[in-house]
C-alpha cells in the first residue's frame, strides 16, 4: 500500500473506527489500541481493494474482529466510559446528543454493537449478521430491544431533568 493511500484511509476512517471500538470495549485506552492494530494490519497485510467502500468495509470487519478478540480475553478488565469522560473525549452538538451517546454506551454489548453498526456505520442487517456470525433475526431482535431500552432510558432521563 502506498503511503499516501494509507494516510488518506487513516484520516477518513480513524474517528468512525475509534467510535466503533469504543462502543464495543467501553474503554478509551483499549479502543486506541484496537485502532492502532487495525491500521497496522492495513499497512502490513491489506488485500487489494476494489474501491474506497471495499476498504472501509474491510477495516470495519477487522475492527469488529479485534474488538471481539479483546472481549474474549480472560485478562481484560472491565472499564467504562463515564459521561464526564465522554464530554472530554468528544464535542457534542447538543446536550441531547451527549445524552444519546451515554444511553447507547449503557446498552448491553450486543445491543450497543448492533446499534452502532446499523445507525453509525449504515450497514444493512444482513451484513451485520454476517459480521457478528449470528442470524438476521438475532440482529433485528437486538435492534428492537436496544430501541426499547433507549426509549425507556431517555424517557427516564427526561423525567429527572
Task: Write up what this structure looks like.
The protein has 161 residues and is an all-alpha fold. It folds into 2 domains: 1-80, Rna Polymerase Sigma Factor, Chain: A (Orthogonal Bundle); 82-161, Winged helix-like DNA-binding domain superfamily/Winged helix DNA-binding domain (Arc Repressor Mutant, subunit A, Orthogonal Bundle). 78% of the residues lie in helices and 0% in strands. The chain contains 8 helices and no strands. The chain has helices spanning 3-25, 28-45, 52-72, 83-89, 95-105, 109-120, 125-132, 136-160. α1 runs antiparallel to α6 (109-120) and α7 packs across α8. The relative contact order is 0.11. Residues 76-80 have low confidence and may be disordered.
Which CATH architecture of the largest domain is right? Orthogonal Bundle
Tally of individual domains:
2
Separate helix tally: 8
Query: CATH class of the largest domain, please?
Result: Mainly Alpha
Helix and strand content put the structural class at: mainly alpha
First-last Cα distance:
51 Å
| Relative helix content | over 70%
Strand content: under 5%
Amino acid at each position: 500500500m502506498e503511503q499516501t493511500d494509507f494516510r488518506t484511509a487513516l484520516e477518513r476512517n480513524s474517528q468512525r473506527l475509534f467510535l466503533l471500538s469504543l462502543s464495543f470495549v467501553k474503554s478509551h485506552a483499549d479502543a486506541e489500541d484496537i485502532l492502532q492494530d487495525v491500521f497496522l494490519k492495513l499497512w502490513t497485510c491489506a488485500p487489494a481493494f476494489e474501491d474506497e467502500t471495499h476498504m472501509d468495509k474491510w477495516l470495519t470487519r477487522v475492527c469488529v474482529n479485534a474488538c471481539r478478540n479483546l472481549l474474549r480475553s480472560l485478562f481484560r478488565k472491565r472499564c467504562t466510559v463515564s459521561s464526564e469522560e465522554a464530554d472530554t473525549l468528544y464535542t457534542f452538538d447538543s446536550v441531547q446528543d451527549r445524552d444519546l451517546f451515554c444511553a447507547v454506551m449503557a446498552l448491553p454489548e450486543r445491543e450497543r454493537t448492533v446499534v452502532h453498526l446499523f445507525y453509525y456505520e449504515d450497514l444493512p442487517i444482513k451484513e451485520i449478521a454476517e459480521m457478528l456470525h449470528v442470524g438476521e433475526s438475532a440482529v433485528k431482535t437486538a435492534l428492537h430491544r436496544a430501541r426499547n431500552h433507549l426509549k425507556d432510558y431517555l424517557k427516564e432521563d427526561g423525567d429527572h431533568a
